[in-house]
Amino acid sequence: MENLALIDSFSEFKDDKQIDRVTLMAILEDVFRNALKKKYGSDDNFDIIVNPDKGDLEIWRNRIVVADGEVEDPNEEISLTAARKIEPDFEIGEDVSEEVKLIDLGRRSILALRQNLISKIHEHDNTIVYKQFKDLEGEIYTAEVHHIRHRAVILLDDEGNEIILPKEKQIPSDFFRKGDNVRGIIETVDLKGNKPAIIMSRANPIFLEKLFEQEIPEVFDGLITVKKVVRIPGEKAKVAVDSYDDRIDPVGACVGMKGSRIHGIVRELGNENIDVINYTTNLNLYITRALSPAKVTSIKIDEEKKRAEVILRPEEVSKAIGRGGHNIRLAGQLTGYEIDVLREGAEEDVELSEFSDEIEGWIIEEFKKIGLDTAKSVLEHDINDLVKRTDLEEETILDVINILKEEFEE
């Protein structure tokens, strides 16, 4: 049969794409059967023999011999005269197998056929890549920076697969150059059309959890369990750890001597401050630990409302709240409880919500975001500090302070 470029390329496809023989044969047969259907209306009576190792392919059409002038379906029937041109001893009712040359399909059909073959090969590749990365969702992966765009960094792995690291999935302090190796987790893998869209994240809490598995042998071996991770990417994180072996100190093992073990993780996350705490089912103790480094005096818990009222010495309040309210926010996320901070001796204090007739609700919420939910807690802070830590104008804060002062002057 004619050694056309299409046939020559079969082995090429097999070598370049690393497609196994059975898969390649199935793709080739599917492509050729589609071409035969277009030309002859049906492919039911065709046999296709593919040999991808040799770059060889044969197509045979099977027809029944009928009397001259009685051919109703030229694709499935052949006249006796035409059959005897193939083999002189054919008789009516016998089966005739005739080889179909690729050239008989026509030049246009051959070009379309080749394009279809390339398309099917790419589709197969994309399916393989999709399945490969779908199995890697939630796992750490490393790829190289190929292109930096305004809203995303485009990465390529060693196989040339494209991975997208969107801006919102990066740590705020991340800065990349072309050629840099980047670690993150494969967060999602979807098929967009026929092409897999692979999204990496460095901001997902799972990334921190997986870094613990990678960097701390006891976590990798299962001797220490990471119970929960919460984080504000690049700023602060809290990790609750536990061990079923009483001989192991989970926090000590994770942090290491003078922070030696956790240092690499902190550096990977752009110096994110990581608090590692011992997990416990004792809710009072768990909330107390979650608020570290602040020292809690006492706790009152409302399990039904999922709220905890925490009493602290005045000097411990700012530690509990943390810069930008990060500490108290993460403590709430870690424990699943909304935490209200109160100062010791603040029994005569008044909840900010009591001033809702004079102070708009959204203003009260701004103060609550940074852990200030009582009148005295606001009055104890410097005005400039309140301007920096809230989204409120200085004039608004002064109005609030005047209203609160009137309460205690009365």
UniProtKB/TrEMBL annotation:
This is Transcription termination/antitermination protein NusA. It is found in: Cytoplasm. Belongs to the NusA family. NCBIfam families: NusA. Keywords: Cytoplasm, RNA-binding, Transcription, Transcription antitermination, Transcription regulation, Transcription termination. Monomer. Binds directly to the core enzyme of the DNA-dependent RNA polymerase and to nascent RNA. Participates in both transcription termination and antitermination. It comes from the Bacteria. PANTHER family: TRANSCRIPTION TERMINATION FACTOR NUSA, TRANSCRIPTION TERMINATION_ANTITERMINATION PROTEIN NUSA. Residues 285-345 form the NusA-like second KH domain. It holds the Pfam family KH_NusA_2nd. Residues 202-279 form the Transcription factor NusA first KH domain. It comes from Aequorivita echinoideorum. HAMAP family: NusA_B. Its main location: cytoplasm. Residues 6-125 form the Transcription factor NusA N-terminal domain.
